[in-house]
Amino acid sequence: MTSYTNAPPRPLQLIGNGNGGINSPHQLHHTPTPSLRPLQLIGSGNGGINSPHQLHHTPTPPPRPLQRIEPLLKIEQENDSETAIHTEPDDLDIVHSIEESFIRNEIPCDRYNIAYIIFYLLGISTLIPWNFFITADDYWMYKFREIKSNKSQCIDFNGIENSNKTNLQTRFTSYISISSAISNTLFLIINTFISKKISLSTRMIGSQLIIIIIFIVTSSFVRINTDKYQNIFFIITLISVVLVNAASAVFSGSLLGIIGQFSAKYITAMSAGQALGGIFTALTEILSLWIGAIPEVSGLLYFIIGDIILLISLIVYIILEKAAFFKYHVSIKIEHLSSLEVNIDDEISFSCEQISYSQILKKIWQYGFSLFLIFFITMTVYPSITVLIESERKGYGHVWNDIYFVPVVTYLIFSCGDYIGRILSGVFIWPRNKPWLVILLSISRGVFVPAFLYCNAQPRRYLPVYIHDDGFYILLMILFALSNGYLCNIVFMLIPLIVNSKEKEIASAMLGSFLGIGLSIGSSISLLMIKSL
């Protein structure tokens, strides 16, 4: 080894581990001297130098003790499985590599699939307001019936003839669709711009609280006699629909922003949950018809069940927010890596590229346009036209044809087909990376519009009925529902794959805006479709 010498020379001191080795770089020291002699080489005994560490030279100034070398990466594990990173790199690229390594190796697990189940329930809750307002058809027909005498309160509205419906009864579904779609679209767009200004927790919890309050108010009207104030009650109902759908838009738009940070498994859970909510609502209506509940009781049943589901949804979301798995994807993965400023040990800070709305829109517009087409075509005829389609054997005294045909075919079969379509898309995920093919498939669904118009929708004055057969109508409904669910979920799953991490929340919120615009325009045209029959 090499040592620094003078008269008398003092050799380099090594603090060993007891067996001739050096424990760490922190154990390497030397003894400074007042003056230095020329460089000396201490060999291995055979004329060689043992290692590169044995070669030294004599610097001009007196040498200072070697500084302790800190580890480059220090990770402290906390009880909730989150990781704190402390480092002092000289190159910003090192920061990125460390962060990426952390993301790759320290992912908390979804124990017992709790988050998966909660996303399913949250998906159900996003469409509970829409489903319960639309599906409670028997209750609304009772509230807006023609009042001639007190005896009218005993009429059975399950099998009421469409030709005998009042204007409010005939057009109520379409009015509800339009008012809900417009408010939904407006607030989906607003949510896109407030997502970075209002915290996620405030948007998610606040919107759910508003929905619950409005549902409670709506439930209270079930037992109030509104026969003499039908028009006033109609206006109050529309205002309630606007408010509940505005809150629902913020809720669903925020949920889309969250779910875009997770894998396709969780996206499918949320999407399938939306369809499952329709199945649940349809079964609730069919159950109330089966037990023979009067319209007031069935209406009360709908909205109380809705209140319970929404309350449970709020509670489980609050629980989900505290889970390490959720925090990793939403708090750490988004805010830590994709925030506008990243700080490490309060010494290094740098700004990332500002999020560009126009750049995100350029990436996703084809899939967004596809989603617009999907819901535009669906809302043009569903449920405003399909709810008017009667069985070819209605009026012959058969319970299936007179009572169960509309709730089963229009609501239950559609919701089941929509659900199955979303599940299938999560399995096959086709087409990939072919946005124009998705657009063409979405446009092809336009054939369902004239097909449903020529089914047995009543009342009608202009168009003839070409499709009388119940079986053919049911087949149309199945294909209509399957294609809606499949293409819808395909778009939801492909969007996160074409944007980077910091853009996912905004991209998903923009996707919600395309969806809402499709709902609004489709619902508006549905009223014209009813008049064209």
Automatic annotation (TrEMBL):
Regions crossing the membrane:
114-134, 172-194, 206-226, 232-260, 272-294, 300-320, 364-383, 403-424, 436-454, 474-499, 511-530
From the Swiss-Prot or TrEMBL record, state where the protein is found. Answer: Membrane
Per UniProt, what is the membrane topology?
A: Multi-pass membrane protein
Q: What family does the entry list?
A: Belongs to the SLC29A/ENT transporter (TC 2.A.57) family.
Query: What PANTHER family does its record include?
Result: EQUILIBRATIVE NUCLEOSIDE TRANSPORTER, EQUILIBRATIVE NUCLEOSIDE TRANSPORTER 1, ISOFORM A
The protein in question is named: Equilibrative nucleoside transporter 1
The protein's UniProt keywords, in alphabetical order, are: Membrane, Transmembrane, Transmembrane helix, Transport
Q: Name one GO cellular component term.
A: plasma membrane
Q: Which GO terms describe its molecular function?
A: nucleoside transmembrane transporter activity
What is this protein's gene name?
LOC105366151
Q: Which InterPro entries match?
A: Eqnu_transpt, MFS_trans_sf
Give the source's domain of life in one word: Eukaryota
Its lineage reads: Eukaryota, Metazoa, Ecdysozoa, Arthropoda, Hexapoda
